[in-house]
Structures are given as structure tokens and as C-alpha cells.
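Regression test case RT-17, inverse folding.

Input:
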């Protein structure tokens, strides 16, 4: 395995995940605020799961997103 290539590919994937996730979450929050589903004072419970085919990896990360 080439460590440099692996590291670069992993960073590219994680950047894509981060940018895409942030955009989708921001849009979902805006839509929920516009529709009245959220008031803007909430703390949202978030869960992210990552799995990789070919590996025994199924990992979950949880956290909170405060809107105020």
C-alpha cells in the first residue's frame, strides 16, 4: 500500500463528506425554519454513520447542533 496515495484519497473523501454534509444540513435547517417546523431555539441531535465495503467498518458518531 502506498501511504501517501491512501492518505490523499482518504482526505479527499472526508472533504467531500464534510462539505456535502454541511450543505445538506444547512439547507434542511433553513427549510425547517421556513416551514415553522423549527423555531431556531432548538438543539438538534445528529448521527453520522460511516461504513466501507470490503472492511468490517460500521462506525457511528453522534453529537448536538445548537441553533442558538
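Golden output:
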Amino acid at each position: 500500500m502506498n501511504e501517501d496515495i491512501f492518505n490523499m484519497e482518504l482526505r479527499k473523501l472526508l472533504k467531500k463528506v464534510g462539505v456535502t454534509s454541511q450543505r445538506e444540513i444547512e439547507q434542511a435547517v433553513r427549510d425547517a425554519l421556513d416551514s415553522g417546523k423549527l423555531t431556531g431555539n432548538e438543539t438538534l441531535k445528529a448521527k453520522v454513520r460511516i461504513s466501507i465495503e470490503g472492511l468490517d467498518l460500521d462506525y457511528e458518531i453522534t453529537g448536538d447542533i445548537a441553533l442558538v
